[in-house]
Amino acid sequence: MLLNVDLQKKIDRTEGAQQLNIQMELDKGDFVAIYGASGIGKTTLLRMIAGLSQADTGFLAINKVLWFDEEKNINLSPQERKVGFVFQDYALFPNMTIFENLHFANSNASLIQKLLKQTNLEALKDKKPTQLSGGQQQRVALARALMVDSPILLLDEPLSALDHSLRQEMQHLIAELHQSYQRTTLMVSHDIPEIISLANKLLVIKGSATILYDNPKAYFEQENLLDEIEEVGLVLAMNENELLLQIGEKKRSIPYSKVTLENIQVGDRLCLKRWVLPSEIHKIERQ
Amino acid sequence: MNWSPLFLSLQLAFITTLCLLIIGIPIAAKLAASSARYKFLLEAIVSLPLVLPPTVLGFYLLIAFSKNSVLGGFLYETFDIQLLFSFGGLVFASILYSLPFMVQPIQAGLQNLPASLSEAAYTMGKSKREVLWHVLLPNIKPALLTGIVLSFAHTIGEFGLVLMIGGKIPGETLVASIAVYDEVESLNYVQANFYAMVLLATSFVILGITYFINARLSLKS
Q1: Are the beta carbons of A50 and B120 separated by less than 8 Å?
Q2: In chain B, which residue's Cα lies nearest the Cα of A156?
């Protein structure tokens, strides 16, 4: 068991102060999505793990080492804990170049090179964060969090500020990086399809209770929050990262990696399954 | 023309600003990061010189620096230092007098930075000092510049305080602002005008350069 959490904290919500209770056990390499209404304490949980907020009671252990134990009066500082943390606003240091942002987290030159390559940032490494687009800044934030030598990676709604196509691209990158670094990852997200494509576990915070589910997809299906759509697409064109498909009358490009699907050629027919949110009915008419 | 009071003013302003940078940055950082209940007391003390007539501060320093007081007596007997009517005393008084001009812009600059910047650095294992030096201060250059310039200019403009504890000893405590007053009293308007013009020009140039640099810095960011 890598991460052992039993934490309680009183938090101020719009409907008044309420107790947040979190119990969970995670293994190395788990990818947990944290799901729940706004202001319910999802970010607070990440902050309590990183040591940026303090729980009222309970304990937190990583690899059987106590990071926090209220009874034993143990509370390691964020510096002692050292976790990879991607903040919602990315928190890139404006005075440093992309390379310097990574170097400040960890001076391991070969890891910097590797991550710059994996996140496709090599050409931008001498630019300042303000010169980058939102998606590029997001990639820097991810790379920088992975520079921190820690078994834990915390992502606070990392994709919420990005548009739809960029989100998909980033999901792809996050999945690849997770595969390659095997960090136990906790990600706050509202986006159900995103959770299903990335996470193997789901922590749902409802009221004061939290429940950890082993199968995110099953939870959302059971809650009627998800529909599955099947479509057939004809491959019109392709490059290393993308496929251009004809689906019905529409053309769509989707991110693709050779690792996930081999030997695709132009002209192939592919079956695509997508998880979508049940669409809201906006009009009912008698026919 | 006697340039000595002008040089003395510049020397005093330079040394005071340098000391204030060293003292003011930690105080501003502490105030910006603190959520302590009694933080307002420290803020009020730091800001006192903004509203206090300089003669009030001068009066209490006059008493504190005298050989009969605890502080003045201790300094005189232990280190043979006499702050009253000396350049060292002026520096000490100027530091107190200009403290809010250094602390307030830096504190405001630090408070305007998102908390996530320092938090991100803490999660990388960086100490508070490293974060202040490498992350926070480089991102508040306009505030630092404002603090430096205001402290410098304010020290050059000191009058009442210097008069109270410095007297007007040529080459030691007779600074330019006092010299203007002194020359006017002696009806020597030409020399008074010379000091006044140099002070006016210096102040204008300093402020002009500051606003120019700040405009460039904000354009860049």
Answers
A1: no
A2: B116
